[in-house]
Amino acid sequence: xKESDSNQAPAPEEEMFLVHVPALVAVLLNRxxxxxxxxxxxxxLEITGSSACIAMPLHxxxxxxxxxxxxxxxxxxxxxxxxxxxxxLIGS
Length: 92
Hints:
Layout (H helix, E strand, L loop, with lengths): L2 H4 L9 E5 L3 H12 L5 H10 L2 E5 H11 L9 H12 L3
Antiparallel strand pairs: 1-2
C-alpha cells in the first residue's frame, strides 16, 4: 500500500437490506400448496421469521428484484401483502 493510500478515509458503509431467498411470496405459495388450505396469519408470520435471507446493499437488492421480474412481499407487512398476492396467484 502506498503511503498516500493509508491517508484516505475509509469508504462509507452501505445500508444493507434483507432479501428473502427464495422470494418470500414463493415460499408462502409453496407452503400453502403443501398445507392444502389457506395459511393463517400465524403461519405467515412464522414462515416469514424463519425463511432464509441474505443481507445485501441496495444496488444488489435491485438486481435481484429485476432478475425475478417482480417485487417480493415486504416482510414487515407480510400478512397483508400475502393476502393480496394470494388473490392474484390462487384466487379467493
